[in-house]
Amino acid sequence: MNIFKNAKLVSICIILFCMIEISCNKSYLDEYNPGNRTTTTYYNNAAGFEALTTSCYPLMRDITQQRFLTINGTDMFCNAGWSAIYYGLANPLGSQYDQYDTRLNASAGEIQTLWDYLYREINRCNSVMYYAPGAVGEADSLKTIRKGEATFLRSLCLFWAVQQWGDIPMPLTPSQEGTLSVTKTPAKDVYAQIIGDLTNCVNVLPAAQNDVGRVTKGAAKFLLARVYLTRGWNFNNSLGGSAADFTSALALCDQIIASGLYPMEANWNSLWPAHNKNPNLDVNISNPAGSVATCNVSKEVIWAIQYANSADYQGDPSNGTTLIGNNMRSQFGSGPSGVAQQARTSTYNRWNGINQPTIAAYLMFDPTLDTRYEGTFTSVTYATTAGSVSLASNNPNPQNITLTYKVSDTTAICLPWNNPATTTAQFGKDIPGGTKNYSVANVNQYGVGLGYINGTTGIVNSLNWSTPMMWKFFQPGVTYGDGYSTFNDPLFRSAEVYLMAAEAIVQGATGAQLGTADIYYNKVLDRALGANSGKSPVRPTNIAAPAVPVTSTVSYRATAANITIDLIMDERARELLGEGDQRWYDLKRTATLISRGSKYNAWTGFGLNGTPLIAAKHYLRPIPIGMLNNTSPTIDQNPGY
Questions:
Q1: pLDDT tier, 456 (very low <50, low <70, confident <90, very high otherwise)
Q2: What CATH number was assigned to the domain covering residues 7-264+300-324+486-494+614-629?
Q3: Structure pTM?
Q4: Alpha-carbon span 335 to 400, nearest angstrom
Q5: Cis before residue 633, ω within 30 degrees of 0?
Q6: How many Cβ atoms are within 10 Å of 316's Cβ, its own excluded?
Q7: Domain range summary for the chain, segments of one domain joined by +
Q8: Residue among 50, 49, 101, 40 nearest 73 (CA)
Q9: Do the beta carbons of residue 235 and residue 619 sit within 8 Å?
Q10: Pairing label, strands 410-414, 439-441
């Protein structure tokens, strides 16, 4: 059964809910409801109540597609390429979410949008609890489960909100009339409410659901473990956390592992849609839709945002959005080389590059041993049409050379850090002495090309390509556009459970069922190594400003002696890059946003005009202007804004 049916009908009822008490003597203003359907009459029966509960799920798509505040401005992602900084251009300007300058303020649109979506979802979930007692014909046992689902979704939204903004409003009943009076609840009380609610969810939710996409006991345990883990860090001593929270988080992780319900896939790459690095060859995939369907039922995925039945859901009806599917494949990283390339079509599809991997993201992996490198990135770009390119206008190396290409010819390659070009002949013909018919770039040239410029000197390279594409989420054979993938967004999966357990142990948790923290960590790593399981993969010691060739490396296999929060954060980056919309939350939880962001995100380290601006205040976001303008007395703004 598809849980997204009747979403539009529920939206109609929500609109009617706002109108039922309006009346006027003038007949032309009288409301006429021919079906006599109101929230009171619709939600008081089993069908209406089921539709109300179902309507809580679709908005989660819109929430998780708001990535500016959860992905960018971190050590692994920025909003735009970092070339302007490395070029030495005067006063380069990127995104406020990376540079943390004064543009990151209460008026920022993305801050308002995320706030609105979260509280809209919270209100829907509160409505489920409100109408449950009067839902005639709904079995009490099923009411309990549906209330558990709504409680889980409300808890997740409150958890995201309290991490973003700290002390926040915490409505626990549906909003039925307008009010200007809003009270902030202290963060420690929000956490206490979430933990109490999720503990109840663990008790009442079933281990499995008939309807695909509904939350389960395993999802509740996963979220509760993450909440305990976060409270244990006790940000600014404001969350009411203690060392016992880490032990509670570990116990839940061990329960999930011991249940056997969510075994990790043997092959990490089987979690993602099957596709070729050369998209011209995707026609050879016998059943691309079947591949995605297989991913969507992976037992490793504890809970996912649903997109497989997109025809039944056109985005949130009250928001007017037209996205009908997953847009992850179009948001991460850049596109192919422009040489001998079709205009944007479904072959390479749309590449918006809103969430660009930092240079550190590419250097985090051992490209030889770790299967996740090739599974995450595409380092070669191919011609999708016949074409040619002249090098006569290149500056500072003009050459009387015209290169021609046919479909599927290589047009550019970005070499991994451990296999660089070391002689001139190994480069493309755009470099005097180069012999390749395509651009070749070493890792220190990602994003900046094969020449270097300052504020007054320009460079033109007709053959150059910038960075490997992030190809992890790509689904071939779907309609061209942003939101048409049917791949479900895996929000929680069991590999992360092992990494949460390792983090809890490092922070002092006791009672681990599998042993020391390195044992949990290496379970995830060895799966990623595949046939190389047991070996010690390495990354460059310095992943912020790589030299070529790399002369110093460090292993990222864990031992009882070397495992630290930084090592775990590195492994979370490799395993979960771009997933779950939570990298900012990871950095905040572990108090590493400033240290890792400044070190690995070129924009954050540069700040504005060369002065880094990220500061302690940025561990909280500003309360959005819409909330400030619509409260009386005005709700308090967060410090520093």
A1: low
A2: 1.25.40.390
A3: 0.92
A4: 28
A5: yes
A6: 21
A7: 7-264+300-324+486-494+614-629
A8: 101
A9: yes
A10: parallel
